[in-house]
Amino acid sequence: MPKVKSHSQKPRKGRLQKELKEIEELENRCQALSIEDEIIKFSELPITEQTLRGLTKANYTDLTSIQQHAIPLALKGRDVLGAAKTGSGKTLAFLIPILEILYRRLWSQLDGLGALVIAPTRELAVQIFEVLRKVGCQHSFSAGLIIGGKNVRIEQERIQRMNILICTPGRLLQHMDQTVGFDCANLQMLVLDEADRILDMGFRKTVNAIIENLPKERQTLLFSATQTKDVKDLARLSLTDPEYVSVDELSEHATPKRLKQHYLICELPEKLDFLFSFIKTHLDAKILVFLSSCKQACPTTSLRLKVRFVYETFRKLRPGISLLHLHGKQKQSKRVEIFNGFMRSSSSCLFSTDIASRGLDFPAVDWVIQVDAPENGETYIHRVGRTARYDASGQALLFLLPSEVNGMLKVLMQKKVPIDEIEVREKMKTSVRQQMQVLCFKNPEIKYLGQKAFVSYMRSVYLQRDKSIFKVNELPAEEFAAALGLPGTPKLKFYKKSDAKNAIRQKPEKVPGLDSDSEVETLAEYSLKRHTVADDNEPFSDNEKDKTKQQSKPLTKFERMMRRKNRNVLSDHYRKLVELENEEGGGDDVLSVKRVDHELPEQLLVENKGPQSNRAAARALSKKQSIKNAPRGRKIIFDDSGDPHDVYEFQNEQDFRAVGSSNEQIKTFVEKELQVMENEDIKDRAALAESDTVTLATGDEDATMGEWENAESVENEMDEMNHNKRLKRTFDNDIHRNSDESSNSDTGEERRTNSNPRKKQKVVEIKEPETLEDQEELALKLLART
After folding, report:
1. Predicted structure pTM score
2. Collapsing DSSP states into helix, strand and coil, what is residue 221?
3. How many CB atoms lie within 10 A of CB 781?
4. What angle, 0 to 180 degrees and rounded to 10, lies between the N-to-C axes of helices 122-135 and 332-344?
5. How far does Cα 412 stand from its chain's mean position?
6. What is the pLDDT of residues 618-651, one digit of tens each?
């Protein structure tokens, strides 16, 4: 037995020594690497055979530009900031170093978490995980995917055994706070894919909390198409002498060479007409459409409303191509289904928010359409990067308003983005304005989505930072609402606030046409007065508005119906809308109105003219609410002299001890209560003696009892009554038992007698004997019983 053990250990020791020798050679080759070395193929890199077999199996043979510069630095253990064009292979630039460094350090499942990759979106995390499965299939590391929308308990059971973790920031922080035993103390590498998006304001608090739980001595890799250089962001990550690798600074353009980019100048009401016409003329293409974008415009709620509205309306118009829509409030299963469906399809159109603009690798996308202008140049680069990936070609089209052309072209020029203008033939243009009006008339949910889409777009423009490009006051609000099929323009509270802020910022000037000093108004007051948005959103003063109302034609029945507000949110149409919203996200309800609770004065009923505000004010001032919110009183009692006292009133200690000791007070209280009880007992006896007669029921006879002179005779008579009752009860029970025994003897059944006298006896009716034979039979039964 010992000989077998020694023979079995020799190969293990030899294999381990050979592996250690290979690792030492790889380490020396990695340290000798230089960026100046021209490495074209993966086989020329100092990597293990397992990684090389995985790359060959996944058909990866040649290195891209970002991989040639970033992988050698990462293999040396240096911190890297990598910036490259979309579709340039940044994913392999950090996955290969992760596999190699963990292998060289003999990492195993007992060592815990070794590498952490954070992505901003779930779809990007899934894509990175799939690439890792292909490349690292020959290694023995355990890898996991941690994203939102999955079962947390299942993830908690497996996360402790993971060596490589691909995750999103929110779910990772949740496991750090809630999962017992999840430890990142041995972390070797941290990778941030799309680092500029993760480090911005949207993930700032989450990333700060995650970094606090990570060790400072680690290797950090940051990759993105538009890399951040902010010193504050880099200081938060505790980078040590990072190497900045950018392959785009020396190139002419920041976008792929095979990407053809165009922009189209059109008015805001014509955007949907141009989009529908484009889709109708490209039925065999694979199209990705991006709608309004603004990080500050509540991306979880407002941005998806326009995506849903365009998707629902175009789906009913039936352009002849498969339509899909993607936004962040959908359930994870539905998002994966839409993502995979668009990847497999050869011709389809996907309406999406910026959730699909980062890192996603959609194969063979022909066109990227940006219906609404991006907020900055970085967002534009990420959007158009969904097409023309690797060696493929693609085209991009940007819709610009006349007020956005100069500013946006200047931004794109600074980012080295070549773009040309195109024009649309009038013959190819199709107008859908009338069809949109019919859809809003027939489907109240479409009308509701249209109203919310209008408000969300205007809010997104209002909240944009670059006011030289996005000017909400110059947008034709009424015409845009009509283009969406809405008969009226929804209210825009922030629109009014924007006018007020702009008016205050302007310097006081004389208004043209006013000469006298008494009639001089400042330009701020004049602008605020002219541009105050009323209920119908007409920028006129009160006098001018009254004149126009008098001269306007009376409203038709159709217009009155369409201008009515949706008061009944529990109708069938809105119930369907809520159910659809719950299916997609189950989170924020689009029909829920979140308001701050505050007191409503009585004047509000007169001042507010809206029907909803009147109802809210009336409900707040109702009798039920006044009783509910009334101050609560206290319960009091009155003594013999009529003075009020609390039910539980405490006496001062001094007053209590002045009466006497506690034992004496207890004795006095007991004697007093005993005297009260004796007095009440005497009263009860006297009342009983004064009663005239007492009737006792003894079967069919009534016994009448006379009067007694004293209480002792009453007690004796009561004892006699109870004795008679017991005798009668015993006689009745005997009769019932005899009848039961006779019935059992006739049927042949045996029953046990009830030994418990308190248990209820079964009542048996006995017929009165009519003949002499019946009387004899009954007497024999009674005698047999005795």
Report:
1. 0.59
2. strand
3. 15
4. 60
5. 35
6. 666 676 776 666 666 667 777 777 777 777 677 7
